[in-house]
Write the structure tokens for this entry.
Amino acid sequence: MDRSGMADFLRARREALRPGDIGMTEGARRRTAGLRREEVAAAAAMSVDYYTRLEQQRGPQPSTTVLAALARALRLSRDERDYLFRLAGHAVPDRLGRADHVSPALQRVFARLSDTPALIISHLGETLAQNALGIALLGDHVGARGWARFEAWRWFVPPRGDREIYPASDRERQSRAIVAGLRAAYGLLGPSSTAGELVSELLPRSEEFRALWERQEVAQRFADHKVLVHPELGDIEVDCQVLFTEDRAQALLVLTPEPRSEAEEKIRLLAVLGVQRFPAG
């Protein structure tokens, strides 16, 4: 691990950014060149003390999860991300098999979306980023661990919590779309990839998944009209628009209601409710 090199690199990348680059409001008075340490720490979901120690060459070797979070927070390109991993003494992530490094260009667009639900997902259905409204509407999946990181797992394996946000009448269509998307990733990455491992884990656990997998349907489908169900607000109709990265490994999904509709008013209420859940009765 090159502590000095990593500290210099983190500091230089931090000083090259402005608050607006990560979706933050820039105050009138700023003495610090670029971002403050606490701003990077907040964007990477880590303590200020931990990040400060990394810049001061005093921290322990960061894990690959921490490095991936820093790469996203500092808007690193893939080459810069790989360089950071090497400085920290870790093997460089497989670019084909992993999509957890959010494209900086996609991240910049995402950071400017605050008044409508939005999220970034990988070609394997792993949620890489969500804004506050996206979490309030769909649940928080960025912090999920293990196979629960993937939409297909949460959809087909009990307790199958993801199904609750879709009307019962639309769940069959959603099941087919999820499996078709996973097959597209499987075809790209191969049976020895994470996609192949996920399929192998799902086949013995879900009869529904097995039946749909045997249909050999292949598609990446996101742009759509959806009805989503919120526990307090009920049905919310939205249009789902998608922006892909050039290699189609990641997609930014933006869920927008029709202007001046009941759904638009519910989205406004969602911003007030946040992730609160009120007991029945």
Observations:
- The chain has a mean pLDDT of 86.
